Task: structure prediction
Amino acid sequence: MILHKGKGMVKTDWNPELYLKFGKERTQPAIDLVSRIHVEHPRHVIDIGCGPGNSTQVLVQRWPQTKVTGVDNSPAMIEKARKDYPQQEWLLADAGKDVIVGHFDIVFSNAAIQWIPDHETLLARFYHLLSDQGLIAIQVPQFRDIPIGKSISRIAQGSRWKSAAVGVSELLTIHNYAFYYDCLAKLFPSVEMWETYYMHVLDSHNTILEMISSTGLRPYLERLETTTDKEDFTGELLAAIRKDYPLQENGKVIFPFKRLFFIARK
Result:
């Protein structure tokens, strides 16, 4: 589905099937984040950037009697969630722009806010969505801190790709823990933070490339107009992946992925 066509760019909707091909890797951080939320009986929980609903199911399983609402700005992701989990509530909306009605005991987001700009304002919006004694629980991929993120940025600045990649890096908004702490401490009396590296054991270097093609690599590929350009860009990236992530003795490859978590309570 084409959402937007502008100069030098054709933006397509997300691919839920490709995203869920690595569902285990994408859902484990949500499981770990939920395990650190010490709330017994929340009345209403909202999952910001719910995608196809994989993280939302972690919330539903933890609190089966709670109303859980999934929100995403991707029509394809919401359509997939509605198809797979028709008994649940799904809202097509942009959490960074649209007005979300209601108050929630938990505002949850797993690997989504990096696609929304202006995080200081966004966190304040989340604060005002909370009920009394409510909390936010968020996970942000630290994509720019890991070798593959650095390789994508370096390749995109090459002479062949630089003009097509103008502005793409700004589509991802990612800060370090110090930035988020300062934002949160202005709003919340209690802030808990931690970082984790997930050691994904994958079948090959091509599998790493496939895993990120539906997320961090996606906006770069959208800027490339021809199949040849896309293949050449990913070919350069695959060479970097082979260098940065050596094969193990059994032929597998370990893909460490850094993620930042924080929980802030009113």
Summary: The first strand starts at residue 2 and ends at 6. Residues 227-244 form the longest helix (18 residues). Residues 1-10 have pLDDT under 50 and may be disordered.
